[in-house]
Please model this.
Amino acid sequence: MDPIVGIDLGTTNSLVGCMEAGFAVLIADAQGERLTPSVVHFSAGEGVLVGREAERKRAVDPGSTVCSVKRFMGRRVGEESVETPYPVVGGMGEWARVEAGGRRWLPEEVSAEVLKKLKRDAESALGVEVRRAVITVPAYFNDAQRQATRRAGELAGLQVERILNEPTAAALAYGLDKLGERSRVAVFDLGGGTFDISILELNRGVFEVLSTHGNTRLGGDDVDRAIAGWIRDRMREAGILEAGIWVEARLRGEAVRVKHRLSEEEQVRVDLPFIAGDRSFSAELTRQVLEGLAAPVLEPVRGHCLRALRDAKLEASDLNEVILVGGMTRMPLVRQMVEQIFGREPNRSQNPDEAVALGAVLQAGVLSGAVQNVVLLDVTPLSLGIETFGGVMNVIIPRNSTIPIKAGEMFTNAVPGQSQVRIHVLQGEREMARDNWSLGTFDLEFEASGKAQARIGVQFEIDADGILQVLARDTKTGVERRVEMASAVDVSDAAVEKMLEESLEHAFEDVQERVFTEASLKARELLKAVGTALARLGDALEGEERAGIEEGIRALEEALSGGAPGPLKKAMAELDRRTEHMAALLLEMAARKG
Amino acid sequence: MKDYFAILGVDRRPWLDVAVLKGVFHRLAAESHPDALGSGGAGGGQADFVGLNLAHRVLRDPVSRLGHLLELEGVDPAGGDTAVDGELGTLFMEVGALGREVRGHLGRRNAASTGLERALLASEAASLVERMEGLGAAVEKCWGAAETVLRELDADWVQMRGGKTLGGLVLLRRRLAVLARWREQIGEFVFSLKNG
Model:
C-alpha cells in the first residue's frame, strides 16, 4: 500500500510522520531528531544542505543560508517587508525570490528542499518510496500561499493529497481520543512566523471549524527581532558599533537562545564573545524586560481572538477548552495573554511542536482509510469576491464558509456587441478591491448580441484544500470548463508598468521634503491632541509631569520650524512618550464614565 | 430547482430548530464528505457534500430559509408590498444616523497616530457604545417579536399550508432581512468601537 505521510512545514521547524498500526507516529531522521529546522544552505562547494547542517551554517555564512522562507511563500515583492540576511529580489509586483548560491529561488523551491529531506527520512524509516503527503499551512494563508505550498510538495516529488490548516490539524490531534463528546474548543497556534486562532465544534467525530482568524506575519521571529534590537542598543551603549550580516546572525541566534531560556528562568546572561574583533559583549536580560519587548509585538493576537469569537457567534465562556500549540506558547507571557483573553487557563496537553504534525498524519490516515469515523469540516479564512463597478469588492463566498463550496454568478454584456468581459478575482475583507489580495484575472468571451443578452454563468469553487477553482458554464450547451487565471500583476501588465513609472517619478521628488510634510501633519495633530488633553485633565496632572510635557511641546514646535524630518520624528516620539501617562489617565476616566 | 429541505431530510416549514439542523448536517456530512469516502473513492462525494453544505447554509438562517421556502412554493420572495412599517421606519432612521456618527469616529481613530490622540477619543467611544447597545436592544426586541410571529406562522403552516400564510411569510421575511442586517451592523459597530 502506498503510504500517505503527514508533514508540518513550519516557519522554524518541520516534521514528518505516518500512521503505524492505527497510531500517528512521527519519524526521526538518521541523527534521531524529529524536528528538522526549516533552513536551507546553498553554497557553490557543498551544494544544498538542509536542516541542522544548514542551521550550523547560519552563523558563518548567513547570506547563503535561507531560514523562515515560509514568510515569502506566495508573496509578491512589496508585500513582505521583513529584513533577512539573504537577499530577497524581484521587481515590484513579481513573486518574491531569494538569492543564494549564485541563483534565484522561489520560496517554494527552497521549501521543496526541506520537503525532500523529510521525504528521504520517511523513506528510510518506512523502507518504501513515499509519493503522497498531507501538508499543513497556517489557516490564514491565502490562495497564493496555499498554491505555493502545493507546488513545493510537487517539486519535492510528492502528490499533495490535502493542504490542511494547522490549527485544524492540532484540533484533530487533541480530539481523536474524545470522539464521543460534544464540545467547543479554540486552538491558539503561535509559531515562528504565523499566528492562527480557530474555533471548532467537535461532535462525534465531526470536527467543524466555526471560524478562523490570524496573521501570517506574526510569530516568534518578531520577538527574536525585538530582542536582537535590545541587544544591539545595549552594545551601542557599550561602544560596540560593529554591524553587518554576521553580527546580525549572531545577535539573532543569541536572541533565540535567551528567549527560550527565559521561559524557564527569570534572568539570563546575554553572551556574545568576540562579537567585534577581540571585543566581547555580555549583559543581563530579565524576563520582565523580555516581556516588555514582546508584549507590543504580540498585542495583535487579542484582536484576532476576539474577531474569531465574534465570527463564531460565541462568547469566550461558551468554550470548553483553549488548546495551545506552536513553540511560542511556551512563553509564560503568551499563556497569560491567552488566559486573560479567554478567561480560563489554557489547555497544555498537546506538545506545542508536534500536535500539528500528528494532526497531519491523522488526516493522512483519514484519507487512506486507516482512521475511521472522523471528518474535518474546514472553512475558508478569507472572503472571495470579484471587482465590480467603481473598484468595489463584491463578496461571492464570505469568510468562514464551510468548504468545499461553490457559488455561481451570472455575467452579461453591458453594451451591445461587447465580446468579452474581464473578471478580477479577489480575496480579503476590505471594501475596495485594491485593498484586497488579487488572485488573478480571466476573460469571459460573449457571443455578439444586444445589450444584456449574453449570459455566462461562472462557478467559483473553493476545494477542500482552500484553493479556488473557477469554472465557466455555457448556458446553451451546459458545458463547464476550467478557467485559468492570469496573475493580475503580470510584469507585462499595464498596471504594473504604470506603478513602476509612478515609483520612478516619485524617485525624482524630493523624498526628504515629502517625508517631512507627512510627519509635520501628524505632529500638528499631536500638538492639538496634547492641548485638548491638558485642558481636559486640568489639575489632575502633577506639576512636574506638566512641565515635562510642555518642554516636549516646545521641542516639537522647534523641530517643526526646522524643516528636517529626522529631528521632527524624534521630537514626536519624545512627546508621545512624555504623554503616555496622560493617555492612560484619559483612558481610565473614559472607562469610569462608560 | 433544488429542494434543500429534501437534501437535509427535514420537513419543509418556516421554522426549524437550528441545533437539530446542525446535528443532521454533521451526520450527513460524515457520510458524504469526500474524505469519508476514502481518497480516490466515489467521485460523487464532493458534489454531494457541496449540495449538503449549501442546503445547511440556506436553512440555518431564517431569512434565506424563508426565501427558499417561498420559491419552492412558487412565490416571489421579493414581491408584494415593499413598504416598511412605522416602527421599523423609526429604527431605520436611528440606525442610519448613529451609524454615520460611529463611522466618523472610527475614521478619526484610524487617522490618530499617537496614543494620546486615541485616548482623547476614548470617552466618545464609550458613549457611542452605550448608545449603540441601546439601539441594539431595541432591534433585538423587534427581532424577538418577529421570531414569535415566525413560530405562529409555522404553526399555521403545519395546520393548513395555505395562501394566507404565504403572504404573511413574504412580509415576515422582509422584516427579518432588515432586522438581520441591522443586528449584524450594530454588532460590528460595537465590536469595532470596543476593540479597535
User: Anything to note?
Assistant: The first helix of chain B runs from residue 4 to 8. Residues 39-43 of chain B have pLDDT under 50 and may be disordered. Residues 86-195 of chain B form one domain. Helices of chain B lie at 4-8, 18-32, 45-60, 62-72, 86-111, 115-160, 163-195.
